[in-house]
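During the no-cost extension, the postdoctoral fellow (Dr. R.K.) reprocessed legacy sequence entries with the updated structure-token encoder. One reprocessed record is reproduced below for audit purposes.
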Amino acid sequence: MKIELEQDVIEDQKMFFGSGGKSMLSSDRYFDSLRNSNFTFCLPVTYWTPRTFESIACCSMPIMEEDYMHSYDIPFQDGVNCISLGKNSRSCKWTKALNRILQFTEKKILDIRYNIYNLRNTHLLPEVHYKRQLKKYLSFEKSEVKPNDKSK
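Re-encoded structure tokens follow.
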């Protein structure tokens, strides 16, 4: 028995929680929901979740734990291009973050979404991502001491 949830998704939603298992949305509906959401909860599955990249690609504000921000190779800034829960989050921090974003004005939301759009263009587009990774690799290679290189 296939469960159809797509008709239950509200068109003008402001926040995306996601779903899994039998209640999963189709890929098209999933990304439409992200694009139509101002905020996306990015709950880590173990240490890392792809939802953070997905939300940025769709210009939806990721809400995430500070402990995981460094693992994305993206210059996240709380209140600028993401919402940070702080370190070692507990359920009360998620509630605090939710209350915080409910106080945002439309202008604040638009400003942050614009910042996310810029972040997407500077970090996620394939050509810029490739250039950043190549630059990192070349700088790493330069800094390594080669076994036959006695000049270092």
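The first helix runs from residue 27 to 35. The chain is about 45% helix and 5% strand. The remaining legacy entries will be reprocessed before the final report is submitted.
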